[in-house]
Amino acid sequence: MRFFYKSVILIFSTLIFFYSHQTLAGSSPFSLRISVGAIHLPLSDWSDFSGEISDSYYQKKNPNIYYGLSLNYALGKHHSLNLGTELIKTSASLSSVMFITNYLLDTLDVVPLVIRWEFQGIPVTLGYEYKLSTFNQRFSPVVGIGASYFISEVEAEVLNISGSPFISSLPKEKRTGRGYGFHASLGLISKLTESLSMISQVRYRYSDGMAFTDKKDSIKVEFTGFDFSVGIGWNF
């Protein structure tokens, strides 16, 4: 979460620096975008991992809400660059059982357990957009591509939901790392006023959130999937 705040500060600092210089020169090519969206994350590697555990039930949360902030710089009528960050969260759980021998009663006890994972990804993305020509000045279709640097985290917790005295809930464990991602998008910019626009976007992203720091045998933390977002753009 701290990295997300740092990314937001970086974007605003960049905006203030360039905007102050552009104000002296005249009109500004900058716009600030704030968005909220829904993303579907298959978490395929974690699904495969859970399938190897017998007598288990795996469940993942989909879709997930995410938030985005980006700074857009127009290179001309059709071309622009953007620098942005997002906060992506999701979760998954695995319900299973453990068989424990009760030596006092000479029985085999069945203890239900739940393993819960919380995922968080914070990408910093550098992207390019191309604005397509249109007959209506109020609506502008755009296509985009981009690359991201990810800061990711997985928090795992084992819960003893039965209250059995033979096993206790384990403390939470965290795994953090850095990775990369790529995306392609298709969007529509709807002009509301001279300075405000509404931006809707559908995007496909591939990302390995811990590619740079994970060990070879670690389960991948991927934020790969489709997402749809709606936001507001403010043109300076």
Explain what this protein looks like in three dimensions.
The protein is mainly beta and 236 residues long. It has two helices and nine strands, in the order H-E-H-E-E-E-E-E-E-E-E. Strands 1-3-4-5-6-7-8-9 form an eight-stranded antiparallel beta barrel. It starts with a helix and ends with a strand. The model has no long low-confidence stretch (mean pLDDT 83).
H and E string: HEHEEEEEEEE
Cα gyration radius (Å): 23 Å
Report the portion of residues in β strands: over 45%
Shape, principal axes of CA atoms: elongated
Structural class: mainly beta
CATH architecture: Beta Barrel
Which CATH top level class fits? Mainly Beta
Query: What's the arrangement of strands in the largest beta sheet?
Result: 1-3-4-5-6-7-8-9
Low-confidence residue ranges: none
Q: Main β-sheet: number of strands, strand sense, barrel status?
A: 8 strands, antiparallel, barrel
Secondary structure tally, helices: 2
**Span between N and C termini?**
28 Å
Per-chain topology:
Elements (H helix, E strand, L loop, with lengths): L1 H24 L4 E11 L3 H8 L5 E4 L3 E11 L4 E24 L4 E25 L7 E22 L12 E19 L4 E13 L16 E11 L1
Antiparallel strand pairs: 1-3, 1-9, 2-4, 3-4, 4-5, 5-6, 6-7, 7-8, 8-9
Overview in brief:
With 236 residues, this protein is mainly beta. It is built from two helices and nine strands, in the order αβαββββββββ. The longest helix has 24 residues, at 2-25.
Name some characteristics of this structure:
single chain; mainly beta; elongated; eight-stranded antiparallel beta barrel; Porin; 236 residues
